[in-house]
Design brief:
- The complex is a heterodimer of chains A (about 220) and B (about 210).
- Chain A is mainly alpha-helical and about 220 residues long.
- Chain A has 7 helices and 5 strands.
- Chain A has helices at about 10-50, 85-90, 90-100, 110-140, 145-150, 150-180, 200-220; strands spanning about 1-5, 55-60, 65-70, 85, 185.
- In chain A, the strands form 2 sheets. A 3-stranded antiparallel beta sheet of chain A has the order 2-3-4. In chain A, strands 1-5 form a two-stranded antiparallel sheet.
- With about 210 residues, chain B is mainly alpha-helical.
- Helices cover about 75% and strands about 5% of the residues of chain B.
- Chain B contains 6 helices and 3 strands, in the order αααβββααα.
- In chain B, strands 1-2-3 form a 3-stranded antiparallel beta sheet, covered by helices on one side.
- The radius of gyration of chain B is 28 Å and the shape is elongated.
- The chains are: A mainly alpha (about 220), B mainly alpha (about 210).
- Chains A and B meet through strand 1, helix 1, helix 3, helix 6 and helix 7 of A and helix 2, helix 4 and helix 6 of B.
């Protein structure tokens, strides 16, 4: 048995599967973007309100401009509301779909199950990313209000987290989540008993082999 | 033959053979059963290393002196080469630092559009993977070249689309090209790593591994 990568041998197969996975992922991403952004905004809003005192933040997804609007109770009514581009947050779902399409028989039950599991974890990553993005906005982009409410450490902490996600985190997340499923075990040696075979079946096979040995022996004599 | 004809000796000889085969078989089964968790453990060790190296690279790149001395000139060089490509396609463009301009459209290349994110991912994965330093160096060099070549095409095509089909610029910039770059980097890494896949297999010899 050998551990190997779930990568087809032919370059054409790799390209075809990636393209198919990418297109399917793109279709799902595009189709479910609006309801997903509502879910994302609600989850991140819950976390934000749970971690601020008083709880004053609302996140409003705007379907037309594909933005999540940040609203605070204490914002002056006439001031413009900052918006966060929503597509940037969750487009990496498409990368995840393309990577899972690399597997042989990606429609197999366990592979689909793994994909949904990983997509769920990716959703949590999106919530955390949105939370960091709003906190970074509060800490660095609201002028004197930011300086008054966030110290240098807090500003650096939130901004570094957000910057990490923007530069490499959002690209690395699908790869990191997919990697544990990238290795498959292949090449069971023929004529050997599998380690996964139940014990009683292994014993039966051994007994049959013993009988064969005896018959061969008799013939030799 | 005569010895085998003696039932007692034949039986003991057969028993001996069977017990040896059985012992070898049980060792093999044990190794195999140990092999799967071992491969999983190595896979998790790879992930831990990958994330650690990625953090290190990120903090190195985020330092202002590194940004000013390495990243900005490198991005300017990307802009210059992409402009050459665009001129070859008949576009009248000029370059100012990290900005490519024409009379109707301009793009400013920043981190995230200079291919650095894919290079960091690819580089972290290659360095985290168990291989000797020579193979890593070859992988890093070839991967860097391939990623940046694709990035020239990305920058030039985005500029062209921005100028001639502005409605398509945003989806191409946000979703398509970013995804293509990352997937390209991952596939490059997998192709490189497949050459050394035995290093991750349970029975691999430690030679060649770090």
């Amino acid at each position: 048995m050998m551990t190997t990568f779930a990568l087809p041998k032919s370059g054409l197969a790799v390209t075809g599967r990636l393209l198919l996975g990418f297109l399917l992922g793109l279709l799902v991403w595009k189709g479910f973007a609006a309801p997903y952004e509502r879910l994302l905004a609600a989850a991140a809003e819950f976390v934000l309100r749970a971690t601020e005192n008083p709880a004053v933040t609302w996140l409003r997804p705007l379907a037309d401009s594909r933005e999540i609007l940040v609203e605070r109770q204490d914002f002056p009514p006439s001031s413009p509301r900052p918006g966060i581009p929503a597509g940037d947050l969750h487009f990496n779902f498409v990368i995840l779909a393309a990577l899972f399409a690399l597997h042989a028989k990606p429609w197999r039950g366990d592979r689909v199950g793994a994909f949904f599991l990983v997509a769920g974890v990716l959703c949590l990553v999106h919530v955390v990313a949105l939370f960091f993005q709003v906190r970074t906005l509060y800490a660095t982009r609201l002028g004197p209000w930011s300086a008054a409410n966030y110290g240098p450490f807090a500003r650096n902490f939130w901004a570094t987290g957000f910057h990490f996600h923007q530069l490499v985190g959002r690209f690395a997340a699908p790869f990191v989540l997919w990697w544990p499923f990238a290795l498959t075990e292949q090449g069971q040696p023929r004529g050997r008993v599998s380690a996964s075979r139940p014990f009683h079946k292994r014993r039966k096979r051994e007994r049959e082999n013993d009988c064969l040995d005896e018959r061969r022996l008799t013939r030799q004599i | 033959m005569k010895l085998l004809a003696n039932p007692t000796v034949a039986k003991s000889s057969k028993n001996l053979g069977r017990s040896t085969a059985s012992a070898m078989h049980s060792v093999e089964v044990k190794e195999r059963m140990r092999g799967a968790p071992l491969a999983r453990r190595r896979s998790l060790v790879f992930l831990a290393r990958f994330i650690g190296i990625l953090f290190f690279f990120f903090f190195a790149v985020a330092l202002r002196p590194v940004n000013d001395v390495v990243i900005v000139p490198f991005t300017g060089w990307i802009a210059a080469v992409s402009a050459i490509l665009l001129k070859a396609l008949g576009e009248a463009v000029t370059v100012d630092g990290t900005e490519i301009r024409s009379t109707e459209f301009a793009v400013n290349i920043q981190n995230g559009c200079n291919g650095l994110e894919t290079v960091l991912l690819f580089g972290s994965a290659v360095l985290a993977f168990p291989a000797n330093w020579q193979r890593r160096a070859v992988g890093l060099f070839a991967g860097f070249l391939a990623i940046e070549l694709l990035n020239f095409v990305r920058v030039a095509s985005l500029f062209w689309v921005g100028r001639h089909r502005p409605a398509l610029f945003s989806p191409l910039h946000t979703v398509l090209w970013q995804s293509v770059m990352v997937i390209f980097g991952v596939v490059l890494f997998l192709l490189w790593a497949r050459q050394m896949e035995t290093a991750l297999s349970p029975g691999a010899s430690p030679s060649g591994a770090r």
